[in-house]
Amino acid sequence: MVRFRQIFLDVKDAPEPDVIIWENQHITSTNRTIRTTIVMLITIILIGVSFGGIVFSKYYQDTAAKEYDISMCSATTEVTLTEAYQDYLKKKEI
Asked: I need a surface site. Which of 26, 39, 51, 58 has the fewest CB within 10 A?
């Protein structure tokens, strides 16, 4: 630590010149903060939209399960076109 005008300064070695990205020297810290904030907002919005899509899909799945009889459904049950159409007609009769 070095003392300069009653203030202690923390002096460090400068980075090597080949480590510095010289093309980015004109970007200010304010500009970098704004860019980072925009990227974070876009990320939060995308996560929110994804979460909303999952919630909507789950709601629609639960609603469809209440409307249609799924007690006989399983992963190995094959449904014919005729059976599916008959099930569809049952819903319209109610």
From this structure: 26
